[in-house]
Specification:
By secondary structure, this protein is an alpha+beta fold. The chain contains 3 helices and 4 strands. It has a 4-stranded mixed sheet, covered by helices on one side. It is globular. The two termini are 19 Å apart. The model has no long low-confidence stretch (mean pLDDT 94).
Length: 92
């Protein structure tokens, strides 16, 4: 899991929080702070990675100027899942 990355010269920080999951949310994109919060207690590595990719998709749409798409949880989860599968299955 990265600790930070850049999008359009904005540094987005990734903060892992071992706190228990609340409201069935494993992560959250906090745009004003440029942060992704991941709640990792009892999550498998694959679910944590999918959650990171889901939150990354929120930021990709947000910085692409498509807040309407960033708010579409079904689309964001699909794109996040595709990114996670790409990352997990890519070969040199």
């Amino acid at each position: 899991m990265p600790t930070s990355f850049k999008l359009l010269n904005h540094t987005v920080r990734v903060k892992e929080n071992p706190a228990p999951i609340t409201d069935d949310k494993y992560g959250v994109a906090v745009y004003p702070k440029n942060e992704i919060h991941l709640y990792t207690q009892e999550l498998s590595d694959s679910v944590a990675h999918h959650t990171f990719c889901h939150e990354l998709a929120h930021f990709l749409f947000h910085y692409a100027g498509r807040s309407d798409l960033a708010d579409d949880e079904i689309l964001v989860d699909t794109i996040g899942g595709l990114l996670a599968q790409y990352e997990a299955s890519k070969r040199p």
